[in-house]
């Protein structure tokens, strides 16, 4: 297969409806996903992540631009793309009248897997998603997190060359989320490529080889989590709730980021005592921690990832 699992060039999507203004969901997205990579599209709700994923997985036609999967154009030849991909849609639901075991096995058989292969992969995927104990319960009786894990199990069982996962861990507890992360790492070790969307900053940071920050249908930044954090301007974040009116008092210590009324100072360890002294004089509380993708996102987008677009 070609070295590029996904190659997108100036992909645009405009939604038009009679009597309503046009909505530009994508405004010229260009990106590359190498074979065997785990790539994250990071952005707020409504930023365009799901639209891009739907186009790349042949579920939506772009208004303009080009996008290929393993060298095959997704618009011109979607039937050649689909055998090489599998998709976990955002907030997808398993078939309620099936059990998790039936759901995964039936999906694999529908994709053409032999019975014994489908059985073996079903059991492995259920084990990876910690679903073995509920594998024979109807999906309608499962919790929301268990249903989401069933959807993920269904897709990872395919071991398809390219997996699309749209907010795959939404609704899961922290333990289950980490189980999904380890399963995705296993799949890339076996040769699969993964493109996922998320608004969980920790998920993007620990799971992705590279991150694309998307805002209002545009790629604003891309790189490894470490390179994006370095661009924030320091290694330490000092957060000052209620510190917004005192921006000038902290401007000499490093880049300033705002989140509501909270002021974040991005700096380096030697400046911490000085910052704390100023905070004490102004009667401000302060917390200190390492710079994370949250600061990189705030610096790039100008607002919190938790705000809707």
UniProtKB/TrEMBL annotation:
Residues 6-241 form the ABC transporter domain. It holds the Pfam family ABC_tran. Keywords: ATP-binding, Nucleotide-binding, Transport. GO terms for molecular function: ATP binding; ATP hydrolysis activity. PANTHER family: ABC TRANSPORTER ATP-BINDING PROTEIN, ABC TRANSPORTER ATP-BINDING PROTEIN NATA. Belongs to the ABC transporter superfamily. This is Daunorubicin resistance ABC transporter ATPase subunit. It comes from mine drainage metagenome.
